[in-house]
Amino acid sequence: MNAPAQLRRAAPATDLTEAERARVLAKSALFNPPPYVLPDGRRDLVGLSREELAAEIAAIGEAPFRVKQIWHWIYHQGATDFARMSSIAKPLQHKLAEKFVIGRPVAATVQTSTDDTRKFLFRFRDGQEAETVYIPDPEQDRGAVCISSQVGCTLSCRFCHTGTQTLVRNLGAAEIVGQFMAARDAYNEWPSPRGETPRLLSTIVLMGMGEPLYNYENVARAMRIVMDNEGIALSRRRITLSTSGVVPMMDRAGEELGVNLAVSLHAVRDDLRDELVPLNRKYPIAELMAACHRYPGATNARRITFEYVMLKGVNDSEADARELVRLIAGLPAKVNLIPFNPWPGSSFEPSSGNALHRFAKIVMDAGFASPIRTPRGQDILAACGQLKTDSQKGRKVLS
Ligand code: SAH
Ligand code: SF4
């Protein structure tokens, strides 16, 4: 069901002009990653769009049909070595290897939880690091890869460990898609040459470190690559982007990518949300909800997920639950109730089981699914909001 027409019309006339989007994008560009050229001059092909790959191939004097072949080897077969590209003759394999590499971030550490959740600390070329989490579904042979979009975060949500680390830099498209590809490598999850489809790592959630909509260009490039039909070919239905509410970029993500949207709400009154999610001071709840009503493609089959971290005595009352229902009325929505995951030095406590269930019941009785998320990988600090690295701005790092 789409939002009723009167609700769409009622969305406040917005001052979210193109100029404001341009401002967000210009600020984001200041934190862009270094270019992907090795000291020996070879270029990493991962992260290039099809058009950019075509330009590289043309620049070395090769025919356009090679682009499709190489794309297939990189993104469908997961090849990291040109010598594996059996449809390409040896002399061209050598020539490609002289000019290019097919990169991956390096897994500096890998930890596996007692519940089989696995956390990778990936190190990128300049030594900066970010975490990626694979969350297997215990009931099916599937799972989700939780990907980071930034090293650190500019926002400082009070309950989030990443929020205690200032933004070091954005991750590039290669680093974003590279996290997924490296996780697939670890599980040997590429199709065999005969072509059966990988299932284990077939969902992406952009819910790791960072705010994806403050790194929109790189996130969008990476998602276009994973959605390309001749490569990894994930459907947009298998990708969920989580945002703390960067309203102007929500419209753009909806129009251009059409992936599932998750919104980190966490409070139903502006005074409390201003405290918990400081971005609310810029884009308050009314504007955020209006952007949700405008989000293209949200239907009952593809609902917007509202994430709500349950903090004891802070946002978990029955009155909060009723106000939440009022806020999301008319939207194709579901509510993910996330018990607060503590981290070293955090100052909140998780809500009691009773409070969680009371809250969930009110939301459910109003007709919205409201699953209580079981924390995964808590023992290895891999659960929602627990990710943080030692990467710092300006730290002396590996080259
Ligand atoms: N920056 C994006 C995506 C990363 S956070 C965003 O904020 O949406 C992914 C989810 O984990 C968000 O809903 C976030 O609010 C939630 N989260 C953060 N800290 C948490 C914690 N300590 N316990 C439980 N969930 C937390
Ligand atoms: Fe950043 Fe999201 Fe953490 Fe807020 S919850 S500090 S936006 S990563």
Verbal overview:
This protein has 399 residues and is of the alpha/beta class. The strands form 3 sheets. Strands 3-4-5-6-9-10-11-12-13 form a 9-stranded mixed β-sheet, with helices on one face. The chain has 12 helices and 13 strands. It is globular. Helices cover 32% and strands 15% of the residues. Bound molecules: S-adenosyl-L-homocysteine (SAH) and iron/sulfur cluster (SF4). Iron/sulfur cluster binds next to loops.
Short description:
The protein is of the alpha/beta class. Helices cover about 30% and strands about 15% of the residues.
Q: What are the salient characteristics of this protein?
A:
single chain; 399 residues; nine-stranded mixed β-sheet; two-stranded parallel sheet; 13 strands; disordered N terminus; disordered C terminus; binds S-adenosyl-L-homocysteine; binds iron/sulfur cluster
